[in-house]
Write a structure and sequence with these properties.
alpha/beta, ten-stranded mixed β-sheet
Length: about 290
């Protein structure tokens, strides 16, 4: 495959998938990345040979339509796009596609309905287990296009695993020439690092501001041109990040963090945002995630 960097978008013919294609094209083209458009082909076992052939023809037509949409969405004559109809169940196909990619992009519905009926079951599985960052394209739109204006927002919890999300967020902000809003909600983290028993909220808040600064320090040195705005709040992280999604172009969160509940495939904050945010959400797995 041509192109050292590839972003994959999974499609199923839905309107939600079309928005994901547009987002992926707008992200890949300016960076010189290859866009790979993939649809899974998994015909029911009871189909006849003729029915199966027609099933595959529909998949090919879907890919052709998506490629046209991608090219119409960007002004890049040399934009490298490849398409693939891959045999297999959609979650398994997309999981395999996530290896070694810059990101894998999905719509907020379709690709197999989950129990909530909102986010596709394949998207839930990828957010939990995918090898590359997973972007769920959701939220407000203008003329069917996902939001492209506004800051990149990243949730910071101070954990080592969360550093992967912070690094990706800085890179996204640099590529988009956008400000980065780093959000740390300290009601969601352990207060054990505060010396002695907490005596006043001002002391705790000051400690959490230091934690946020330390989480960003190395990345700010690496990306000196990125304007960083820091937000430290005492609240539920989902509430704060959801409010910010109304003006953001992208929210970046870790796969799991200190806000996750034991036994969940995704951290509680990540899970809620991919279902409710008003802009695209990128879920980034940390080391060993």
């Amino acid at each position: 495959m041509s192109g050292a960097h590839t972003i994959v978008v999974g499609i199923d013919g839905s309107e939600s998938a079309d928005r994901a294609v547009v987002w992926a094209a707008l992200t890949a083209a300016p960076r010189g990345w290859t866009l790979r458009i993939v649809t899974a082909v998994d015909p029911p076992a009871h189909l006849t040979a003729d029915d199966t052939t027609e099933y595959r023809a529909v998949a090919d037509a879907r890919l052709t339509s998506a490629e046209v949409l991608a090219r119409e969405s960007v002004d890049e004559p040399g934009f490298d796009i490849v398409t693939a109809a891959v045999d297999g169940k959609v979650a398994e196909v997309l999981m395999a596609e996530s290896h070694g990619r810059e990101a894998i992009v999905l719509g907020a519905s379709g690709l197999g309905e989950s129990e909530s009926g909102v986010l596709g079951s394949a998207a839930v599985a990828l957010c939990a287990h995918g090898s590359s960052p997973v972007v769920v394209v959701r939220g407000r739109s203008i003329d069917g296009r996902p939001p492209t204006l506004g800051p990149v927002v990243v949730g910071v919890d101070g954990s080592e695993q969360n550093q992967a999300a912070v690094g990706v967020a800085f890179e996204e902000a640099a590529q988009r020439n956008s400000p980065l809003v780093a959000v740390h909600v300290w009601s969601d983290v352990s207060l054990a690092q505060v010396a002695g028993p907490p005596r006043d909220w001002d002391t705790i808040a000051a400690s959490e501001e230091v934690l946020l600064a330390e989480s960003l320090a190395g990345w700010q040195n690496k990306y000196p041109d990125v304007e960083v705005r820091r937000v430290v709040a005492q609240d539920r992280p989902v509430r704060v990040l959801s409010q910010m999604s109304e003006q953001a172009s992208l929210i970046v969160v870790g796969h799991r963090g200190r806000g996750g509940f034991a036994g969940m495939l995704l951290g509680s904050t990540s899970y809620a945002l991919v279902h409710t945010a008003d802009c695209p959400v990128m879920v980034v797995r940390g080391p060993g995630g």
